[in-house]
Design a protein that fits this description.
The chain is an alpha/beta fold. It has seven helices and five strands.
């Protein structure tokens, strides 16, 4: 597994340890990590602070996203995918999409390359979370 996905998984674990939803993300520009984040909806009582949104917020203003890749432990939802499309982030690498299919087709229809690694560690982490806290998960995905 590449180092950047390992970083995203560590962010997801950090979120879980804080009592939140275990989804982590990192933003890479020209091969260097410029931002890391995790889902903080619970911790900060912020309905839009998904992992990708926190990651981009932590990265701050980086100018062009032309040479970036965003990693996420879970396939991005439509809100996060919209931000990826808006900023023209060309590539998304995800840990898994079995537990949540997200907005892959939307991103691809806008020219974003999406790679799904289908990592057992990411699937197990989300499966466990969804089983243990279904109400929190359903809130996160708008159910």
């Amino acid at each position: 597994m590449d180092e950047f996905m390992k970083m995203a998984i560590e962010q997801a674990k950090k979120g879980a340890a804080e009592g939140g939803i275990p989804i982590g993300s990192v933003l890479i520009k020209n091969g260097i990590c410029v931002g890391q984040g995790h889902n903080k909806r619970v911790q900060e009582n912020n309905p839009i602070l998904h992992g990708e949104m926190d990651c981009l917020n932590q990265a701050g203003r980086i100018g062009s996203y032309k040479n970036t890749v965003i990693y996420s432990t879970l396939m991005p939802c439509y809100m996060c995918a919209g931000t990826i499309v808006q900023f023209k982030i060309p590539k998304v690498i995800v840990g898994e999409s079995r537990t949540f299919p997200g907005a892959r087709a939307f991103m691809e229809s806008h020219g974003v390359e999406v790679i799904d690694l289908d990592l057992p560690e990411c699937v197990d982490m989300m499966t466990r979370f969804i089983q243990e806290k279904p109400e929190l998960w359903n809130e996160d995905i708008g159910e």
